[in-house]
Amino acid sequence: MKLSDLRPGDKAVIAEVGQLDLPQTVKRKLLSMGITPNTRLTFIRKAPLGSGIELDIRGSKLCMRRELAEIIDVNPIETGVAHG
Question: Is the pTM of this model over 0.70?
Fold first, then answer.
C-alpha cells in the first residue's frame, strides 16, 4: 500500500522508500525527514485539494507532497481497540 492511500487516523509502518532509480537528492531529503524503513507513523490529514498530506512521525508533524507519498510503501497497522 502507498502512503498516499492512507486515510486520516490510519497508522502504518514504512516498508520501502522509492524506486532504485530515485535521485540521490530525493533519497537524502526523505532520510533527513525521518522517512526510513520500519518507522511508525500516523496519517493526520490530506490538504483540501489533495495536493499534500500531513503525518505524525517520530513525534513531529510532517507535510509532504502527494507525489512524494506515492513512492513510499507502507504496511498498515490494525488498531482494533474494543470499547465498552
Answer: yes
